[in-house]
Design brief:
alpha+beta, five-stranded mixed barrel
């Protein structure tokens, strides 16, 4: 790498070499576990991406397949957008005589998607996370009730949700909770996906 300023004049004589660790890094950019590990130690300009990855590492097991896949995918998508915005002439940085060419990050993204598609449970869970986004309004059907809240299925699908009656963030009044019974339909808003319990935390609306 010569510089981060693509406006600087670049001449072939300026090129030095890619070291063995650097060459290995380029080869590993299609390895999902490696990409996920890189995501843990990347300085992101996009704070939303940074927060998502950080939260998964802070509250959940970072080596689970679900966390690995999501963090790797977030990293690659971020790098693709970063390259479009800040390094539009990236191919010009590599000499035509070089053994190693610049990396097509779409190949990395394809590798992540293949890894996800190979595991049916992983594919199903990630498709649910992609579909039921934060702040999305949903209909939740009460399946069961316990001392701390209710377990639901969301939007007529086999997707698990939970509303707690003990924590204020769920906005679930105790008087409403006391009258709820299995089969009732509740209007809710998606708060986040709970990686520990593999379910969506829902905020009660009415």
């Amino acid at each position: 790498m010569l510089c981060e300023n693509s406006a600087m004049p670049i001449e072939e004589g300026d090129l030095v070499k890619i070291t063995i660790p650097g060459a290995l890094h380029l080869q590993m950019l299609r390895n999902v576990s490696y990409l996920s590990a890189c995501a843990e130690d990347t300085l992101f300009k996009n704070t939303e991406v940074m927060t998502r990855i950080s939260n998964r590492l802070k509250f959940h097991e970072s080596d689970s397949k679900l966390v690995v896949a999501l963090n790797a995918r977030d990293l690659v998508n971020y790098l693709i957008e970063y390259r479009k915005e800040y390094l539009t002439n990236s191919d010009e940085l590599v000499s035509k005589k070089a053994i190693i060419s610049s990396v097509d990050l779409n190949d990395s993204l394809h590798a992540v998607e293949q890894w996800i598609q190979a595991d049916e449970n992983l594919k199903k869970t990630i498709s649910e996370i992609d579909y039921f986004t934060v702040d999305m309004d949903v209909d939740a059907c009460v399946v069961s009730k316990n001392s701390g809240g209710v377990v639901c299925t969301i939007a007529d699908k086999d997707v698990k949700g939970f509303i707690s009656s003990l924590e204020p963030k769920y906005s679930f009044p105790r008087d409403v909770y006391s009258k709820i019974k299995p089969g009732d339909i509740l209007k809710c808003k998606v708060m986040e996906f709970d990686f520990t319990h593999r379910s969506f935390q829902l905020k009660y609306l009415n």
